[in-house]
Design goal:
By secondary structure, the chain is an all-alpha fold. The protein has one domain. Helices cover about 75% and strands about 0% of the residues. It starts with 9 loop residues before the first helix and ends in a 6-residue tail after the last helix. This is DUF7144 domain-containing protein. Keywords: Membrane, Transmembrane, Transmembrane helix.
């Protein structure tokens, strides 16, 4: 009888997987920090942003500041979990990045360039975390995350 070798760590099976995880964590950290800065700007001085009258989604800019501040703080915390390799952080990273994308879209007329940057960073986070999750599905032979 031969003993089966222990399962190799994820990074050993797919050398790029560790890089994608770090990429997702860094991008989520950057998006979170940008969202925090945006939130502080909205709370401290809501006259920093241009208020449009004919936008379908009109909200108080101070309220949007709080939304961005909270989303940014959660994104930074989840990115720390991604660096630790936590499974909850991968799922949470996709959810938080999706909320950052939605918040960025809804506040697009107030700061278009900043919103597009946040949407792009968050889209890259979703991509990176889903690519890694898809590899887990293929490797484990079943649906869902292990």
């Amino acid at each position: 009888m031969t003993a089966t070798p222990p399962a190799a760590p994820q990074a050993a099976k797919h050398p790029w997987a560790g890089g994608v995880t770090v990429f997702a964590g860094v991008m989520l950290m950057i998006a979170g920090m940008l969202s925090i800065f945006r939130g502080v700007m909205g709370i401290a001085q809501d006259d920093v942003f241009v208020a449009t009258r004919s936008y379908a989604f009109q909200f108080d800019l101070t309220g949007w500041g709080w939304v961005h501040l909270v989303l940014g703080a959660v994104a930074v915390l989840v990115s720390m979990g991604i660096f630790q390799g936590a499974r909850w952080a991968r799922i949470g990273g996709v959810v938080v990045a999706a909320f950052v994308i939605i918040a960025g879209f809804l506040s697009l007329p107030y700061s278009p360039v900043w919103s597009v940057v946040l949407i792009a960073f968050s889209g890259l986070v979703v991509w990176a975390l889903c690519v890694l999750a898809r590899e887990d599905v293929y490797r484990s032979g079943g649906p869902g995350l292990r």
